[in-house]
Amino acid sequence: MFRLNDPKLGFCRDCLAPRRAAASRRCAGCGSPRVLVHDELYELRIAHIDCDAFYASIEKRDRPELRDKPLIVGGGKRGVVSTACYLARIKGVRSAMPMFKALELCPEAVVVKPEMEKYASAGRQVRAMMQALTPLVEPVSIDEAFLDLSGTERMHGAPPAFILARFAQDVERELGISVSVGLSYCKFLAKMASDLKKPRGFAVIGKAEAPAFLAEQPVTMIWGVGQAFAQVLHRDGIRTIGQLQRMEQGDLLRRYGSMGNRLFRLSRGDDTRRVEPSNERKSVSAETTFDNDLATAADLVPVLRALSEKVSARLKKGDTAGQTVTLKLKTQDFKTRTRNQRLPDPTRLADRIFETGLGLLRKETDGTRFRLLGIGVSDLSDTARADPPDLIDLRSRKRALAETAVDALREKYGLRAIETGYTFGKGTKGRPPRAESTDTPSMRPPEFWDEMDLPDA
Fold first, then answer.
1. Are residues 241 and 294 located together in one domain of the fold?
2. Is 143 annotated as a binding-site member?
3. Domain that holds residue 63
4. What is the reported pTM?
5. Annotated binding residue 379
6. Which residues form the active site (predicted)?
7. How many domains does the chain have?
């Protein structure tokens, strides 16, 4: 069916029939404009698959009356946008934008609260379909992953490009959502390609065209170049990747240290990282956004306790423990603070998570008003080494036994059967005013807090 490396032979993404390149770029069979032709189409093996406006797409799938309306998935007016459909994005709405700003840009938008278990279930379905293509699937977040399809032609009877197009069709037909595909020879460019033609996109970046393609892109397209570092580059007169391509490696190293080496390599499309399959959760957390900014320990500590209990419950349910505790705070001007402490031994106890977080929180309660508080643990392991008896602090053993007894009572009679003095009378989330929970996984490249709050399997 396919003559590999034939630059004149492509296929239609809608009817999947092989088609020759034509001036009209339309399929002669079904009339679709989505004919895929590229000089290296059948040579490339590294893909990045990203679901389109994932949460919003699932909501529109389940609620057809919202299909033609701008839709925002997120918290209340004090929360942030988890995701927005493309109709809302046209108005400027973006993920992580404060909700009040999003509604100023798109006041006609319908706002729905996230249903994380529903999204997690759909994410697992998409992941399973990816793993049917290749065992080399590297998840990036709940709705995106890298795939290495090297050596899969014989298994599927077709090259990776064709298999990916068929996969996109299968997702739409079986799950009712769409994906965008990027295909290239490395992860960096595959990720870049998947963003080029959203939604329902399929973009290809080959080796031959990579330097010229990259030359026109802004430096912010390089992984690791955030706003702060982009400003440094801009001050040095560097705004495009093409400018980096003309610089010597030694010069970049002298100016920017180890980051200079990344700039040199990625600006030339040199990315040798492999697709590394991993199904391990790297962290567990809980966080919440307040209706009103809080500043005092009297207000913040009960919230910290309630969230610590939530994290502990997840750890216990997953039969895992963590050794690094991280406190997350977001100030009223949306600046994020993260503070962490590594414990001598892994823990899954709410008491230890809370006491550690409390020590970190005390250093931050200096009158600053906060709109968000979170607590999490990372460096996860099984429970074999978790919470060993403390020969010096004998009270810690008693607290651990008491927590076990509390867990048993809650398991039998419900979460409100017994409460600590920290949270008693303050509701299930530990704070006086009603607040919006923002236990949502991030869509950005993985860092500690980007991987927090993945829903329980």
1. no
2. yes
3. 38-208
4. 0.69
5. no
6. 144
7. 3
